[in-house]
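Could you help me review a protein record that somebody else here produced? Do not assume that whoever made the record got everything right. The record follows directly below this note.
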Amino acid sequence: MKRYLLNIIGIIIVLPFFQGCSTEKNTFASRAYHKVTSKYNIHFNASESLKSGIEKIDDRIENDYTKILPVFKESDPSAPGMVKSDMDNIILKTSKLIEIHSITEKPKRRKRRTRKYLEFASKEEFNPWIDNSYLLMGKAYFFQHNFSTAVNNFSYLLRKYPDGDARHESQVWLLRSYSELGRFDEAAEVIKSLQGDTEFPGSLERSLSMATADYYIKQKEYTEAIKFIDIALKKTIWKKQKTRLQYIKAQLFEELGLFDQAGKEYAAVLKLNPEYKMAFNARVNAFGVLSGAGDGEKIKKELQKMLKDKKNQEFRDQIFYALGNIHFAGGNRDQAIEDYRQSVAYSVNNQFQRALSAITLADLYFEDFNYKQAQAYYDSAMVLIDDNYPDYAALKEKYRSLTNLVENLLTVEREDSLQRIAKMPEIERESLIANLMKEEQERQRNLENLAIQGQIGQGYYRSNRYRMGMGRGLQEGGWYFYNPQTVSYGQVTFRQRWG
């Protein structure tokens, strides 16, 4: 900081002498002026905006532990919205720098043209901060998830300044951009080029290994990805990043079915003393992979202990899900279904886990030909996921087909019910309707009172209203009592949670 302040003071002192320096003149004075102004004014401010954006992403994006963590948090679909103003500022600043501080005019010819002078005079750009500005601009487009423009930016930089200081870092970001676009053949060419580059700086080896691991993970080539995660771990000094990479490594071994090794890797995560949420997930996942190795009963007891720990109240959905997996693996399908139901019921704040548990449960009901319950749980999941969710298109189609089927089934049941009611004596019919209305009003009052008292989350209350049709209006005459699916679902969920 002290050095930076001294540089600023120096600029202020000498600035008046260089005010007349034009980019059309390539003199020592003009080069010095444009170089210093670029570095300590425009480029510095743009770099600060990048730091600000990275901090926002790191602070605000929650890890989704139901799937393999992305190597880079900025890959998350929600990232662009968080950093739009910062990235717009970078693009504005770097565009300005390139426009007003680029020096392409050749220097005055000297009588004595030494080899060093000839090398210098052959350059296309005489302000060393121009290629860095293209690099920063490309990063800004990348963080906005405008990956195609980022590719164009990095590619232009590499063509225009093939020997510039920013070329290697630009290649790493080009690799990342290709990977995000799914252009894996082109990404592979970049990797091959960098691996054979003897001038590649050691300071970028961590970034390259992480980008390469990301490239392999996106293609589900987990064995190859682990090799580069290991390189990145050796090059990483920041605890938070090291812990994340170690967690990803454990997940990759789990995906490969190497459960013993996965258990060891999750244990390694815990040794790094991560924040509580990651530590909890590492512990639960370790229990899960160890149960697959034959320690099911012991692990169940450990998970039951975790359920009783007050610190884990917000994580009960994950614990029940882990118990469900253990029971399912042990052949106890009925208990697994009950555990998954509990997981959905207790999942108030964690929409990732709620969606996963609901889909798992829906799949089981679908296999059992219990289409009403399957549709209800798919419905619960669909309001929580978007088209970035794995196999989203197939899930959406299954949900749509089931919804049509269930609507037809309910129509038949409703008509049967109405015919039975129509055949009742008038006194019995009126009594039945009055009792049904009274029960529903009482149920609604109980839910609302519990929500007001803080005993259930408003999110849980709203999601139940949505799932049971109360938030959608009266669809095709879909009165609550004509829908056995919503009535039974509401009763089961309410009893599960509140007794």
